[in-house]
Each structure stands twice: as structure tokens, then as C-alpha cells.
Automatic annotation (TrEMBL), chain A:
Keyword Ubl conjugation in annotation: no
Organism of provenance: Sulfuricurvum kujiense (strain ATCC BAA-921 / DSM 16994 / JCM 11577 / YK-1)
Similarity remark: Belongs to the SecD/SecF family. SecF subfamily.
Ranges that cross the membrane: 12-35, 137-154, 161-182, 241-262, 268-292
Protein name as catalogued: Protein-export membrane protein SecF
UniProtKB/TrEMBL annotation, chain B:
NCBIfam families: 2A0604s01 (TIGR00916), secD (TIGR01129)
Lineage: Bacteria, Pseudomonadati, Campylobacterota, Epsilonproteobacteria, Campylobacterales
Protein name: Protein translocase subunit SecD
Cross-referenced PANTHER family: PROTEIN TRANSLOCASE SUBUNIT SECD, PROTEIN-EXPORT MEMBRANE PROTEIN SEC
Protein task: Part of the Sec protein translocase complex. Interacts with the SecYEG preprotein conducting channel. SecDF uses the proton motive force (PMF) to complete protein translocation after the ATP-dependent function of SecA.
Amino acid sequence: MELFKEDKVYNFLGKGKIFFVASFVLFFLAIALIATKGFSFGIDFTGGTVVQVKYQGPAPIDKVREALEKDELFKHAAVSEFGSPEEIVIKTAASTDGLSKDIGDVTREILKGTGEFEIRRVDMVGPKVGDELRVKGLTAFLLTLGAIMAMVTFRYEWRFALAAIIAIVHDIVITFGFVSYFEIDFNIESVAALLMILGYSIHDTIIVYDRIREHIQESKNSDFVMIVNEAVSRTQSRTTLTSLTVFFVVLTLFLFGGDIMLGFSFPMLVGVIIGTYSSIFVAAQLVVWTGFSVGRYREKMAEKQKMQAEKEKMRAQFEQGIV
Amino acid sequence: MKLNYRVVLLIIATVFGLIFSLPSFTQSSEGKKITLGLDLQGGLHMLLGVKTEEAVNSQIKSIASGVKHFAERNDILIEGISVREGKVVFELLDGDDATTMDEHLKTIEGTVVHASEGKYAISITPEAVEKLKLQAVDQAIETIRNRLDQFGLAEPTVAKQGIDKILVELPGIKTAEEEQRARELISRAAKLELMAVDEDRSMRVNDLSEAEAASYGDRILEDALQPQMKHLVNEIPILDGTMLTDAQVGYDQNNRPVINFSLNSAGAQVFGDFTGKSVGKRLAIVLDGKVYSAPVINERIGGGSGQISGNYTVAEANDLAIALRSGALLAPIYMLEKRSVGPSLGADSIKASLLALVSGFVLVMIFMIMYYGLAGIIANLAVVINIFIILAMMALLGATLTLPGMAGIVLHIGLAVDANIIINERVREQIRLGIGLKRALHEGYSKAMRAILDSNITQIIACTILYVYGTGAIKGFAVTLSMGILASMLTAIVGTYGIFQLFTNRIEKSKNYKMWFGMTRKVNA
């Protein structure tokens, strides 16, 4: 089976402005959404308690709410169905720090008489821990971006690195714009999803860049736009195939993973779509806009090769003892 | 035939992967297995904080006890010994004893002594305070570990996190009662103190306020068995639990469980001295700030052993003895984070994520075969071996598989398939150029390798940073992903090439590129 005609060069950059406008609009819409609506941060970051309860038979949500109202710890608790009518989650901003007075035990006491139930999960995070997670996570993320920037600069050029970073940020911001819009709980699993998108995005981008570099070196053409079009066209079947396969896996995780994995499967699903789009239409385009010049790059490469050759010559001379 | 080292490597990798991942599948007792995270298998996860200031407070009190005992033993008259604002203060009545007292105070490490006109104030140096705080955390970890070991749970984890936090994981906890018992055992301060009852003012205990009691250097303590009953005791204990050597459950004459404890030689001496001088007075046995009994001392008690009686069940007495034996917590601990997952939920999570992973994976496999023909099968083989290698490596490293770890595996399946796709696409391109298969394979692989290496090295660098700076879940993600990347380079770049090499002649002869690579060969030449 073959999807794309191998020898055809598609003019991806020709429509660059359209995609630029699309990305631009999406990106700033996402930022606006995140800024105004924000995330519904899970207790991993805000502190608080989540109790997941499974009833035998449909959960009596109203009775549960009524029972919880009476307790100080659950004054502003949110009760909602979780995955199935039997199961509910109770969320409250309160947490307890004593070991003997436990919020799980308290819940069990309060819910007594609402029916046959089983407490399946109690997550309690104190306010101090959430702060630390946020700071640490952000540090790790920024350092990682820095490292990627350094690596791409080393292997390609700083313009490529800059474009790659912009593309990554583009992907992540838009994805989490969706997370904000659909009010998906932002928890520690979402951070894992974010990392996955980061990995996926940079991987896709590098594969395209590798082709661009190859074409710069091999093609006689000096028109960078042409080279990029050629490179993106050549990688087209690979990008599509890979994206489809990753999409399959993530989609099944989204469909079968259930509500407990939503904070994780939803951003991944969106991220894979955005990441694929950006590696075809955004990442390469950005390099063109940074003012990359094929001529200069070739000169630099030639220079590098010359130096390498000279070094080797000197080493050979040195080893033979002719100085 | 030439030895095909690539195939040999692939076979070794396969055998390695199978052997070491097998125990995780069969759950046999032998061999190392992948541990499932608490989110998958159920259990109790707690992050505990330590109130280290309390450790400093009790150290100050302990210094006060020491000074008091020293003075009594050497017939030095002191007055008003008490703890004020983190300092031990007292007055020396006879100036002649100053040299002896000063000599003694010098031997107490980590303290600063201010003395003027017989008025003494001892405080702890800032360095000693820091050291005490650190010690309190380390000691708490040790103590909790000891207690949990004796509790009889399967593989509890007690580890230090950051500077002053303790991570406790108990995978074996199944019921709410078990959880409660474990929490109580962990949090129990188990601080034993032997305190003298202030007989002079004891009658007035019900009329005294806390502040008044403090002005006499006394404390009002509740009775453990009858909470309405109060005891007035000297603030500075005669002895504390640090001198305890053993605690065992025993039975009194009515066959009720009691706890017998013994003291070390220093403790026995202090205990003996005190009881010898205080015949006819009462001694309060105080555990965690509550008076368990206050027997009248009939004679000097040597040998350094005593008994705590209370209304215990055998199980309670047992837990208490464990707590006492494994040492007091120098500082109370509190809960920063708690996650408890019921076993049924964990099983559901595993089921859901396995279903998702397997079905997604099967879809990918079918797709690959449709698209690439036999090359697709080879690629699938590589990816399957790859997964076995990851599982084997995780088992060997004792890594824990969690939900975020599964994100790592999902991404990794994507990347592993991708490596094969890149290679196959490149090989197809080369075949289209009309060059011989052998060269086409060589060119295709070397070109694909550059792209794969660039991307993978970038990812591994990113993973390293995530591992160093990340917290638990992020670390798990980074470990799974980087192991996967290493394995995929081996199976995709080295392994599949080896297989193609084995079949090169056959493919050339058959000329069936449709079957092998899923493509029509247009020879441009």
C-alpha cells in the first residue's frame, strides 16, 4: 500500500499564510482561554481531597449531598457521577493533617445509611505539597526546553532550535487550551501527557528537520522554500503513518481508559493531532521565517568540513612524526 | 555463511527480554518482577511531614532532667529549674558549687551557657538545632520502618523525600481497619516519661490553671483511663523513653495484658536514685502526655524495669509494645499527602489500560502489515520484542509501573513503530531509485539512522533532565521512555536490518517487492 506519490512535491509553504493565521488564532484563543477560564486544577496542585465511592446500584447523589452538607470538612464539596451511575466522586478543598483523624474514615461515617457502598479511593493532598509540585514541574519543564534548544542548535542551527521550541510551545498551549475549554481535570497525569506531547512534538519536528538538512546538502537547488517543500513532501507518508498509529493507541486509551484516565488521555489525543499538524505546517515554515539562508549554511558546512580535513591532516602528520 | 551479528544480537535481546519479563507475567515467586504502582494495585501511600521543632523542645527538657539529676546526685542545691522560652533556667543557691556545676555543663554538647550571679540559662546552639531537626527526621524514618516491619505487611516502603519529608507506601493494605491500624501505629509518638507527682500541691490540682501550674514548674496531665481525673506532675521528667531498652506484652494477676519495660543502665541508675529518695511519694507513668498509672513508691526500685497497665486489648498492647520497642518519635509527624486506592479500583485501572494498550497495539500491527507487507511483520516483531525488553529492564531495575509510566509506554510504542516506519520509507525510496537491494538496504538504514539518532538523543537528554528535576510520577515517565528508546534503537536499527540481510538473496530472486515491502517497484533507470 502506498498513500502518497513519492515523486510529487506538495506546496506546503505556498499556503503558509493560511496556516499561520489558523495557528495564530488558535494559539491566542488558547492563551485567552487559559488566562480567563484557567484550568480546573486537580488536588495534586491545589490541595484538597477526592473520595471515589462505588455503590451497589445507582448512587443516591442527592442523599450524599445532603449528608455531606452537615460536615464542616465537606461544606463546599462537589459531588458528581464518575464513569457510571453507580460511582461518584466527592471533591472538597479541605484536607486533614492528622494521622488518626482521617478524611476517609470521616466520609465512611457520614455516608453510613445512604446505601451499600465501597470507598475505592481517597486522595488527600495538603496545600504545601501542591505548591512544591507546581514549582518543581515548571522548573523541570523549562530546563527540558532549554536542553532541547541546545541539542537542536548543536546538531542543526539556532534558527531550527528556535523554530522547534516555538512549535513545541504552540502545540502545548493549544492542547491545554482545549483542556481548559472542556474543563478536564488538570492533575499529575496531565503533566505526564504534557511530557508526552513534548516528546512527540520534538520527535516529529526533528524528523522533518533531518530531511531539510539532507536536502540542503544534496540538492543543487538553493531556494530554501523549495527545499522545505521537498523535505516535508518526502516525509509525508512517514508523518501520516506514524501519527495514525500513535493516534490509534491514544484513541483507544481515551475510549476505554475511563474517567480516571481522562486527565491523561484527553490531552494526549488533542496533542497528537496538533503535534502532527504543526510538524507539517508550522515547524518548517517557522524556519523559513527566521531568515535561514541556504547559501550561508552551505558555506558554514564547507568551512566545517575544511577544518575537519585540516585537523585530520595535522593529526596524520603528527602521528607520523612529521611536525 | 557469514555470521550475522545483527541477528545474533536480536536473538540475545529477545531471550533476555523473554526470560526477565516472564516472572512479571506469571507472577511466580521466583525472579524479579515489575512492581505495580499503588494506583494500579491498590494500597496506601502517605507523604509525612515531621514537626521538627518538637524534637528541639524535648531535647531541652531532657537537658533539664539531666541537670536536675546531676545536682541531686552531687548534693548541689538548685532552685526553680524549668524551661523558659527554649532555655533551661535555674538558680544555684550555693556559690561554692559553681565550679562543679560549670564543669558539668561544659560536658553537654551543643549548648551555650549563660551564668551571672548564680542564675543560669542554657540554650542550644543554632548548629545543634539544625542537627537535631535532621536527626528527628532520620530517627522518625528508622522508627516507622521498625514498626512497620513488625506489623507484618508485605514490602512496606519508608523513604526520605527532600530534606524533611517521609514517603510511606503500604501496598498490602486492603481494608479500612487495616489502614487505620497502620496509621495509628505509625503516628504513635510512643513517648514514655516517668514523672514525679507534685505531692505538695497535688490536692489543689482541680483548682489550678495551666499557667499557675507552670509557675510552680508543674504540668497538669489527664488520666488515660479516667479522663476527668487530673494529675499534677513536675514538668521536668525523671526519665524519658530514650533510656528504654525493651518493651514486651505481659499479663497481670488478673490476666489482663500489661506492658513490661526495661531501662538501660543509666536509666536504671536514675530510676533507682529517684525511687530511693521518694519512698511514700507517687510516680506517674506517662505515655504520650497521658498518665497511665501513678503508683506510690514503696521502696527503692533497682534493676530498672517497670510496668504500664491500662485497659488494653491484646492487639492494642501488642501495637503499643511494638511502638515503644522501636523507639519514640522525637517529633510528631503529620500528613502532607495521602492516597489510598482500593484493590478493586486498581484492578479496574489495570484492566482498562491493558485493554486500551492491547487493542491500540493490535490495530497498529494490522495497519503495519497492510501497509508494508512482510516488512510490516518484521517491524511488528521488532516492536513486540522491544516491549518485552522494556518490561525485562523494568523488572531488573525494580522500577514501578504507574499510570503515568503507561503514558511513557504509549509514547514509546509510537516512537518504536515510527523508527520502523522511517526505515521502511527510506528503504522504499532507495529501491525506487533502482539500485540493488543490498545497497538500497544499506543506504536506507544509514539515512534513517541519522534522523532516529538525532531525535532519540534529544529525547534521552530531555528524559535525563526530567528524571533529575522531576517528582515521582514524572520520574517514572522518564525512566520508561528512555529505556524504551534504547531498546528500540537496538531492535529497529540493528535487529530488523539483520533479518533483512538474512533474506536479501531470496527477496532479490523473488522480485516480489509487493509482498516484501508493500510497494510497486518502478525502475526509473
